[in-house]
Specification:
about 80% helix, two-stranded antiparallel ribbon, single chain, about 180 residues
Amino acid sequence: MRNNKIYQMMLASMLCAVGIIIPMFSPIKVVIEPASFTLASHVAIMIAMFLSPGITITVCIGTTIGFFFGGFPITVVARAASHLVFATIGSYAIMKKPSLLTNIKQFTVFTFVLSIIHAICEVAVVMPFFFNGADTSNFFYSVIVLVGIGTIVHSMVDFFIAKVVYQAIAKPAKATQTAIS
């Protein structure tokens, strides 16, 4: 039992590190304030969702703290903190219905719904910053289109990347976990 807790802590730590490193060093970034899109930036959180709610919550908190101490703008830190909502919901849904990861139709609908929740959360945290001194004539384009719709697309892409990565590492990881236990 103790080895399993250590294994889960190690997974959470590694996913936190990956979740902080990807946005910092990825060469594939698009920044159109107040939105920013970094390919695979949500993958660590999404893989955590596939593992357990506890790991998911830990990774969301860890990446948020990492962005804060990494000196990222407060809007980026707030957007990272908002991931706690969609990721926790998704992780509990997967725990209750694991077939969400194996049935492509269910997975697509599931990721679309979570991507909408993700976008709503990001729009909600960006709005106060946008209205605090920004030119509000671009509100619809900047917040609704770029952050909202952009997050839905970005989230869906990252979900499919996370699924491919997870499937590639899940079998070797289970063999290692069995050997540790």
